[in-house]
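Re: [help] complex structure
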Amino acid sequence: MLLRVENLGKQYAISKSFFSNKETIVQALDNINFELREGTILGVLGETGSGKTTLAKLIVKLLEPNNGKIIYNFDNFPRNVQMVFQNPFSSLNPMMKIKDILKEPFLIHHLDNGTDTDSKLRILLEKVNLSYDCLKHHPDEFSGGQRQRIAIARAIAIEPKVLVCDEPTASLDLSVQAQILNLFIKLKEELGLSYIFISHNIEVISFIADEVLILYEGKPVERGLKNKVFNNPLHPYTKILLSSDIGELQKTSAQDNYSGCKFYTNCKFSSDICKQMTPEEIKTEEGHYVSCHILK
Amino acid sequence: MNSNILLKASKLNTRIFYKDSVVNAVCDLDLELREKEILAIIGESGCGKTMSMLSLTNLLPQSAKITEGQILFNGKDIEMDNEDQLRKIRGAQISYVFQDATASLNPLFSVGEQIREMFITHEKIPSAESKNKVLEVLESVNLKPAEKYYSYYPHQLSGGMNQRAMIAMAIASKPKLLIADEPTSSLDRITEMQILNLLRDLNKKMNLSIIFITHNISIIENFADRIVIMYAGRIIEKGDAKEILRNPKHPYTKALLKCLPKKENKDKFLNTIEGNVADLSDLPDGCKFNPRCPYVMDVCLKEEPEFKKVSEGHFTKCYLE
Ligand SMILES: Nc1ncnc2c1ncn2[C@@H]1O[C@H](COP(=O)(O)OP(=O)(O)OP(=O)(O)O)[C@@H](O)[C@H]1O
Ligand SMILES: Nc1ncnc2c1ncn2[C@@H]1O[C@H](COP(=O)(O)OP(=O)(O)OP(=O)(O)O)[C@@H](O)[C@H]1O
Ligand code: SF4
Ligand SMILES: [Mg+2]
Ligand SMILES: [Mg+2]
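Output below.
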């Protein structure tokens, strides 16, 4: 076990506004538990706004949790945890040349020895299918997908233990996406790299993940071994998410003022208890956890 | 279908001037969009999709210039150096959803205020009514409850919320043409469907024409009327969306469609296209795909192929029969 997340929670405060004159609290993440095992990929799925980026930022310590904790079972924290951010347009320092951006991790962690680093950069660029020529340019001279690949090159440069990837291939064409996903698999097998891999693309998660975690409005709904969850989805939300017929989910405005299951207003299996109580996570079989009242 | 041409670009060329080199990012682009049509653009990362779309109303970065070509919008010439005319067209008639969602929202104003500004300046809606209009449009992109998101600042939104705020802003001005650069790339499948349904509705009821760039092949079939496929700054295949997805002719298009991950695929590695992504600063003679093409012939190395008709409304640039 490389990393363990226990009862993790994060809130944001939204200051008062035009419509309300008191500060409101957004519970972006609540009661998240999982383990990341060495050499595995945990795929994180969930609708937009469900807390995925918040989770990623907590793991790389860009945010502090309000509840719970993350236990890192390895040394050398910043070196061994790298992140690829969701927005390639704001994740690279516009003042630096690509050469310096890619060299930086070697310098910071004292792994730079001149000529050797140069050939490493060459290999890195090949891996993400960018030309050597790009080193002399600045980030704003690149397309979205090119920037994303530069960010990926930077994150894998010094071979961390954990790579946190937030939608790493969302801005790539199918062929380059396939090359990057293959690269991730190779790094996992050859170096034992582990990943927290956030994606909206179910086919991508299905291809790459060993385990999955599915979030709904900041709460875990279902998690476990990918094959168990994908072959036998149990939570009503997961079932809709994985089915090819997704037309049926009409998101109604979520009302924050009830204490039950966040999926209650959308769920066709719901009963009174769902509105009153948050379901606890239960283990339905080895490596398969679900948070839903109907499974009791 | 109404067959009036809304937008027509002919022989459009856009160059980027770097310190010590010049790159042809858009090469001889011919594009036609009929009124009420939805056109999808797909193509390799860095092949010039964004540059092509920015060229249409000259929103290019400083280092890039249109060096040749003509653009007709609604039958009228768009004059590339007439800033007054361009400003009137942008926003009011052609609006954009940029690939970089965060850069196009002002970090200092709440999302609701920014959209409200849009209504007041472009739609001349009285200030008192505008608030309700904003709530309506936020609701339509599923930022619910809208009262809550009205007062959110861009940095308080998630990636996909930001993207939807951008879409809300772009459709608020009721444009004739929406140019959307990967507008649903940070949305989950269900929300993406809802947004596409919304755009379809605007297309049907308000005659909104749409050009959208996407890497998500699976949404095209049900959403777009036509597709354009780009490689190395050029259009290499174009035509009816369903026809091209079922019967791709260009070797690049064929290879690209094979890279789609599928749930039932149990192979350890995904299919890719061998070789390097086309480097615009170092392109071969002849067909630009020739270094990677499994069918390459002598003629492919010498001369660049012209468009050839495959069937009614399906064209490709390739020498293969
Ligand atoms: N800095 C912030 N201040 C206030 N609220 C925030 C902040 N960052 C995120 N939030 C809120 O937290 C929730 C979760 O956001 P997060 O970015 O983690 O979602 P996400 O799952 O990554 O979504 P997406 O798929 O759209 O990127 C959202 O409701 C968002 O509005
Ligand atoms: N602001 C810029 N300044 C200089 N060159 C640029 C700029 N933006 C893009 N380029 C270059 O122009 C070429 C075309 O880029 P463009 O952004 O049009 O690609 P794209 O097809 O949209 O790719 P993606 O799918 O990755 O967004 C690329 O080779 C890129 O390096
Ligand atoms: S023109 Fe020749 S090289 Fe180009 S795609 Fe066709 S067969 Fe391949
Ligand atoms: Mg996110
Ligand atoms: Mg682009």
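The two ends of chain A are 29 Å apart (CA to CA).
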